[in-house]
Amino acid sequence: MQVQEAIGSEHWNRVKKRLRAELGEDVFSSWFARVDLEDHSDGTVRLSVPTRFLKQWIQSHYNDQLVGLWKGECEGVHRIELTVRGAMRPRPIAPPAAKTLAAPKRPKVSGDTRLEGFTTSHPVVDAQAATAAVGVGRPDSSLEASRDVFQGAALDPKYTFETFVEGDSNGLALAAARQVASGSPVTFNPLYLHAAVGLGKTHLMQAVAAKVRGSGRKVLYLTAEHFMYRFVAALKAQSALAFKETLRTIDLLLIDDMQFLHGKQVQQEFCHTLNALIDGARQVIVAADRAPSELDTLDDRVRSRLSGGLVVGIQEPDFNLRRNILTTRVTQAQRTYSNFEVPEGVLDYVARHVVSSGRDLEGALNRLIAHNQLTNQPITQDMAEMTLRDLIRTSEPRRVKIEDIQRVVSKHYNVTKADLLSARRTRTIVRPRQIAMYLAKVMTPRSLPEIGRRFGNRDHTTVLHAVRKIEEMARTDTGLSQELELLKRMLDA
């Protein structure tokens, strides 16, 4: 049995590696980071997840892909079984008096009811839904479910306006966030912040939420994933109407990580909520890792509504901002470690070479603090180079977007972007399209499914075929190989 478990664990690690490569880091982290292997026998792989919503989402959207990947590792696998960890918790025992009350029966619902993007068998999703399910006969169950909306996601106490370091790359976003938090009349709605990971959009969102909460106004901060959980839980608790009405009484709604909002019905409800709040002069702030026009998984109406307010991008920090971030964080660290000192030359070195994000800068500083406090060795240039060697990059490559690739390829091959996205199969269109897909795979962090969506909603297998085709041709066709290098230089320029 131990040998079988070890083999299953090795296979699962390889399956996860292939999943991460095919789906991209963002999608993999959202849906598979908390999936564990429980058992592997008799052609069935048993996986466990922490919530029923996660179980249903994976079953609806990734079951076939999981089965295919497992078959690639173990030919005998023909079925994936998902279970919820801790799902068999004992229910609370009702008081004796409750036995004399006839609780109304919940209408019987089919176990495979589909909710426009969700597959649900009507199990509870979280503690609130569990309470509603156990206490179906209580008249206030829907009210309790709606009150739970106001709890929102937890805020990090470190994320305040006082700890946010301003620079040229984030000044406009900071000014807009401060105006919203001040309670002045709504002038732009929604406020949409977009930036790559670690550049401060979540910091600003939570700073606004913390400031507004202190003013007595109703404020709700949620990630897109939490919004989905809450909405589906309300549907299952039969309190969707109360959930919607409660949402629309909020003074300030903040939704983070908008790129993870999936499901047609959830997006429709979000759009209705967005319209109701904006029409009622209530403020909405949304954050994502890219601009609304680039969120191809969103419904067109949602994208249009998000683009109708103030869209502000936060750029990568320049040297001066990185240096100021480090100085600020060192000052904060000295409140805890009074003997902690970092030479100016070391701060300059870190600011010059750790260039991707403020989060990486804080990680670098934390390493220096740990090394200093655990070894009692002073921080020097040599120590910093050794400790931070995996974070150091001599230069940050230009971030290439799929739109850039489509524009450059269209111009180079004298076709239109519409041609690249169309279903036309003529040679003059197919080859540039395959080249553009190949460049999108090798020059951007986007997953195969996302690249497919950006090229006319094509399947990820089409993208994979294009990538392999161009790779194979480039090995034998010197002219094509030179063209690809030329296009890469044009995109990097």
Automatic annotation (TrEMBL):
It comes from the Bacteria. It is found in: Cytoplasm. The keyword Transcription regulation does not apply. Residues 373-493 are annotated as: Domain IV, binds dsDNA. Transmembrane segments: none annotated. Residues 187-316 form the AAA+ ATPase domain. CDD domains: AAA, Bac_DnaA_C. InterPro entries: AAA+_ATPase, Chromosome_initiator_DnaA, Chromosome_initiator_DnaA-like, Chromosome_initiator_DnaA_CS, DnaA_C, DnaA_dom, DnaA_N_dom, DnaA_N_sf. Residues 401-470 form the Chromosomal replication initiator DnaA C-terminal domain. Residues 1-98 are annotated as: Domain I, interacts with DnaA modulators. Keywords: ATP-binding, Cytoplasm, DNA replication, DNA-binding, Lipid-binding, Nucleotide-binding. ATP binds at residues 198, 200-202. Plays an essential role in the initiation and regulation of chromosomal replication. ATP-DnaA binds to the origin of replication (oriC) to initiate formation of the DNA replication initiation complex once per cell cycle. Binds the DnaA box (a 9 base pair repeat at the origin) and separates the double-stranded (ds)DNA. Forms a right-handed helical filament on oriC DNA; dsDNA binds to the exterior of the filament while single-stranded (ss)DNA is stabiized in the filament's interior. NCBIfam families: DnaA. Belongs to the DnaA family. This is Chromosomal replication initiator protein DnaA. It comes from Roseibium aestuarii. The gene is dnaA.
